[in-house]
């Protein structure tokens, strides 16, 4: 566990900056998986399940994305998964660390890249929140990923973003919401029955804005409702990054 904590702190060595290409946010776009992102506006997004670059050679993702069979390759600077894109970077995994107490809880993992990536306008580590920061109810955040575009629908080709306001723990843990499955080490977001993360967004970031225009990654996509992607009172549930920094 000490090694995991030290790896998470590596992000502080390189620092983090606001995206050079700023995201365009349409909060009320009524599509489950959201809308196409502006290319390179989320320069820490990786494709390995979903993931977040937190330093030149570490990617943060969900433990449930990891198994002992697959050889993992992390792709950065991806916009379309089908197209061959100039400037995209693919790295193999040198080491994978899953949280030692992972079950449905502690759904976090780290992937060390085989070699450090060169930082640029299109590859930037994410900013992480301070330890134990808890977002207030209603905080406007965005989930990003290549998940399904609708319940049981096709997966996205173009990276998507969806507006998900945070649902406070007092609400999310109510019996008709997620009840005891929502712990204080998780962040709930969405649940309005309109916009949501969806299958195959797993491991990706919950991006939340700061007053200065920067973004912190507060969550790792962990689970959602088995009934569909936009079920009322069943928000997407994220591992709360601030509980593990």
Automatic annotation (TrEMBL):
Catalytic activity: Preferential cleavage: Leu-|-Xaa, Met-|-Xaa and Phe-|-Xaa. Hydrolyzes elastin
GO BP terms, alphabetized: proteolysis
GO cellular component terms, semicolon-separated: extracellular space
Record-annotated Peptidase S1 domain positions: 31-245
Record keywords, A-Z: Disulfide bond, Hydrolase, Protease, Secreted, Serine protease, Signal, Zymogen
EC numbers, comma separated: 3.4.21.71
Signal peptide: 1-15
GO molecular function per UniProt: serine-type endopeptidase activity
Localization annotation: Secreted
Name of the protein: pancreatic elastase II
Source organism of the structure: Xiphophorus couchianus (Monterrey platyfish)
């Amino acid at each position: 566990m000490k090694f995991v904590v030290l790896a998470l702190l590596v992000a502080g060595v390189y620092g983090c900056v606001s995206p050079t290409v700023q995201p365009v946010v349409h909060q009320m776009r009524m599509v489950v998986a959201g809308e196409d992102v502006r290319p390179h506006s989320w320069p820490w997004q990786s494709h390995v399940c979903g993931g977040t670059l937190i330093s030149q050679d570490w990617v943060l993702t969900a433990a449930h994305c990891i198994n002992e069979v697959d050889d993992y390759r992390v792709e950065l600077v991806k916009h379309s998964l089908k197209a061959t894109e100039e400037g995209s970077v693919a790295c193999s995994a040198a080491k994978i660390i899953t949280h030692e107490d992972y079950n449905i809880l502690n759904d976090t993992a780290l992937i060390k890249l085989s070699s450090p990536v060169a930082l640029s306008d299109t590859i930037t580590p994410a900013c992480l929140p301070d330890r134990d920061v808890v977002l207030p109810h209603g905080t406007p955040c965005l989930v990003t990923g290549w998940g399904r575009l609708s319940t049981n629908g096709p997966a996205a080709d173009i990276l998507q973003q969806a507006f998900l306001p945070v649902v406070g723990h007092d609400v999310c843990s109510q019996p008709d919401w997620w009840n005891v499955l929502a712990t204080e080490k998780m962040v709930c977001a969405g649940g309005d029955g309109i916009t949501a993360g969806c299958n195959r967004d797993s491991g990706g970031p919950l991006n939340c804005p700061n007053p200065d225009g920067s973004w912190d990654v507060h969550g790792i996509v962990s689970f959602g409702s088995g009934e569909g992607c936009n079920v009322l009172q069943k928000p997407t549930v994220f591992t709360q990054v601030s509980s593990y920094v």
